[in-house]
């Protein structure tokens, strides 16, 4: 198994400086993240809003710097790389963002949008060759070649996301970072884009880091799923294993909140003060956990492999592995 992305003991803390006086506030957003994205696999990162999913993507893409830990892309540590050293990595790793309305420049037509990365990297410079390449690329994302001279505002959300995917694929990357690429789309269009991503992943043997807050979407696309809660990976397992035997109380509560007919819902307990109380408990989920026991007040849970390939970070992991959902 070749690791396309290897994240080890990654921490990211933002520092909020006060306007005038007072102490700077530290906001730990990612804590001790360990993840591997193998070749030709889709790794899903699932968690609620604000848990740090996009921050993780930004660190991997070099937009934000890690506070501690390492990120290796194809074996190369990205810490301290210069702009020139990043260039080949950018060709190798591309990104699709959540909002196709904001991620495409409205002043550019589709031809310019998709050609821009090719110009930056000096690829397909002959006019005829480029035209053929652009048409084939549009075709591969299900768009007609006569769309090349139209502008982004002339398309629907789903079509725009297809353009964004075509732009990301123009450099023929091996890694795709997809940060909630279907969240801004309605359900039927979501299904089309997910099918497209699945097809592209198979055809191009892509490794995909796929961020979502929707378990149904993750189940459809991902080979492996990591569940994140307040900047920590609380559970990780192959997709089918996670759905068959969810262990962490957070995963269980998220799964039981997925709408389904005739099933009694166990909704995630709200906790208005989690932000304040997160530092008082060793386990960040304990204030909201319906299974928490006294042990959770004094035990810092560590991630452990409970079944082959299935890891969970919970002080009650032995008890939970015996309890069916
Ligand atoms: N530049 C920054 N300075 C300070 N805090 C930040 C900064 N960027 C993000 N944060 C904080 O980091 C936390 C995680 O943000 P992030 O955008 O990674 O969440 P997310 O999981 O992607 O959420 P969503 O699902 O809503 O996109 C949030 O509490 C956010 O306020
Ligand atoms: Mg986000």
Quick structural gist:
The chain has helices at 53-60, 83-92, 110-121, 127-140, 157-169, 187-204, 215-221, 239-244, 249-256, 274-277, 295-298, 317-322; strands at 3-16, 25-38, 42-46, 68-73, 76-77, 93-96, 175-179, 207-212, 224-229, 232-238, 303-307, 310-313.
Subunit organisation of the chains: single chain
The termini sit apart by 32 Å
Rg over CA atoms, rounded to whole Å, is 21 Å
Number of strands: 12
The helix/strand series, from N terminus to C terminus, equals EEEHEEHEHHHEHEHEEHHHHEEH
Overall tally of structural domains: 2
SSE-based structural type: alpha/beta
Helical region count? 12
Largest sheet features: 8 strands, mixed
Q: CATH top level of the largest domain?
A: Alpha Beta
Task: Return the CATH architecture of the largest domain.
Answer: 3-Layer(aba) Sandwich
Name the beta content range: 15-25%
The overall pLDDT average reads 89
Uncertain segments of ≥5 residues (pLDDT<50)?
Answer: none
In order across it, which strands form the biggest sheet? 6-7-8-3-9-10-12-11
**What do we call the CATH topology of the largest domain?**
Rossmann fold
- The gross shape turns out to be globular
CATH superfamily of the largest domain: P-loop containing nucleotide triphosphate hydrolases
The small-molecule ligands in this entry are: adenosine-5'-triphosphate, magnesium ion
